[in-house]
Write a structure and sequence with these properties.
The complex is a heterodimer of chains A (216) and B (247). Chain A is of the alpha/beta class and 216 residues long. Chain A contains 7 helices and 10 strands. Chain B has 247 residues and is mainly α. A two-stranded antiparallel ribbon of chain B has the order 1-2. In chain B, 41% of the residues are buried. The chains are: A alpha/beta (216), B mainly alpha (247). Chains A and B meet through strand 6 and helix 3 of A and strand 1, strand 2, helix 1 and helix 4 of B.
């Protein structure tokens, strides 16, 4: 059996004294895309942050890219994960290009890709605009550019289509396909299952902290 | 981490296991440079320190002579102490600037880039120290003009200003990281920094007093150096726990 990229078994997560996830089991194989749907407050973002290694499980077994999330192994796999969350992870005082250059500098990427990916997501004309002066949709595109730059093995998208205009809708699928074509996997959270139906292999419903298959 | 990490084959979902290269990150020093450059670029754009904190510091120095009158001997006696008090209090504001720490989504993204928390902390400290040095160098002539302190051996001010800037930079960055980690108001930063800045303030003001008397300040410089070393060790050790989510 191939090692799954993500393997959660009976995982619980508490934030402070509040249990947010309970008994969650999820597996993501290489090349697979899982859709995740659920009502507001059902724990979708917490689940993504757990898989991104930013939270630790309070119960159960959780392994991501082979690393036990309960141990310091999780630090080692972080550079192989990209998380595009609700809030833009860009510095408002830097331009879109400078944000991309910054990510490249931290990762030691010096191949000119930082500029190229900005063009790929259709932001060539706005590359010198400060992130603080960009619309939410433009920031989303810039984050997709960063995901393309970093070439993650695991892509986590929260509210995948939020803020994107119809012309950019195909961008989500393109980025997801780029990751899976390299042998990676993706978990895509969306309020609109119809919009992700075309490129997810299965969809899971998160309801009140518990996970159940929505569509086999 | 090894050079390659096993990841299962994607396309055919078979039991074939292939390897992909692990993701390298920049060296510690390159990460420090990237963080410091980012912070200074943000400061250049927002001018939080240059346009707000420095003028306020200069005004604070000006208020004292206005309050005590033109008693030149008194001003000469308290002038150096006033300079360091203003540097300490307004220096905290330099550390509290928005670009001095990372919070929320950018902080998460920085972790996922594989950054070393100690390098991030050092980068922020480097930028804060640079800004504090500018702050000190711009306020020093103001202080000299207003208080006319009689000091022998002005060249000793060079290591003194640098060591105080490094110490305050470390303290302010550490305090900013603590408040960011604990999700509490940055209003707590002065409460954390000022008491811990006492050794720096004491060493700086005592050094100036000894320079006024024409005595050596080597001993007080050693105190500053030791304090800075202690702060550096604390920052490196605390960096990872402060960066991780407390849950």
């Amino acid at each position: 059996m191939p090692t799954p990229l993500v393997e959660l078994t009976g995982v619980g997560v508490r934030l402070g004294n509040t249990p947010v996830l309970a008994g969650v089991s999820l597996s993501l194989a290489a090349g697979e895309v899982v859709g995740l749907v659920g009502a507001n407050g059902s724990g979708k973002t917490t689940l993504l942050r757990l898989v991104a290694t930013l939270l630790r499980p309070s119960a159960g077994q959780a392994r991501v890219l082979g690393a036990d999330l309960g141990s310091e192994e999780r630090y080692q796999v972080r550079p192989r994960i990209a998380l595009i969350g609700h809030q833009p992870a860009l510095y408002a005082e830097l331009s879109l290009q400078e944000n991309s250059d910054f990510a490249a500098a931290i990762r030691g990427i010096h191949n000119g890709r930082a500029a190229e990916v900005i063009d790929l997501v259709g932001l060539a004309g706005a590359r010198h605009r400060l992130a603080g002066a960009c619309s939410h949709g433009m920031l989303r595109r810039a984050e997709f550019a960063r995901a393309l730059l970093l070439e993650p093995d695991l892509l986590l998208l929260d509210e995948a289509h939020a803020g994107l205009d119809p012309s950019a809708a195909g961008l989500v699928e393109t980025v997801v396909r780029t990751v899976t074509a390299r042998g990676g996997g993706a978990i895509v959270v969306s309020h609109e299952p119809n919009r992700i139906g075309a490129f997810v292999d299965r969809t899971e419903l998160l309801d009140d902290g518990k996970l159940e298959a929505l569509r086999p | 981490m090894s050079e390659t990490t096993p990841v299962s084959q994607a396309s055919n979902r078979s039991a074939v296991t292939i390897t992909y290269p692990s993701r390298p990150v920049a060296s510690f020093s390159d990460q420090v440079k990237a963080i410091a450059r980012k912070d200074l670029t943000a400061e250049f754009r927002t001018r939080e320190v240059l346009a707000v904190t420095i003028p306020f510091g200069a005004v604070a120095l000006l208020l004292v002579p206005l309050a005590v009158g033109t008693d030149t001997p008194l001003l000469q006696r308290i002038g150096t102490g006033m300079f360091w008090v203003v540097v300490a209090v307004f220096g905290v504001m330099v550390g509290m600037r928005r670009s001095g720490s990372d919070e929320g989504a950018p902080a998460d993204a920085l972790l996922l880039l594989g950054s070393d928390p100690a390098a991030v902390m050092t980068g922020h400290t480097l930028a804060t120290t640079g800004l504090l040095l500018v702050f000190e160098l711009l306020l020093l002539p103001v202080s000299i003009a207003l208080y006319q302190p009689r000091i022998r051996g002005w060249w000793w001010l060079v290591p003194l200003l640098v060591l105080v800037a490094i110490g305050l930079g470390q303290l302010a960055t550490l305090a900013g990281a603590v408040t960011a980690s604990a999700s509490v108001s940055t209003a707590l930063v002065p409460l954390l920094v000022i008491p811990l800045a006492v050794p720096l303030l004491l060493a700086a003001s005592q050094s100036m007093e000894r320079l006024r008397q024409g005595s050596s300040i080597i001993g007080w410089l050693a105190v500053l150096l030791s304090t800075n070393l202690l702060l550096a060790i604390t920052s490196v050790l605390a960096a990872r726990p402060l960066r991780e989510s407390p849950q």
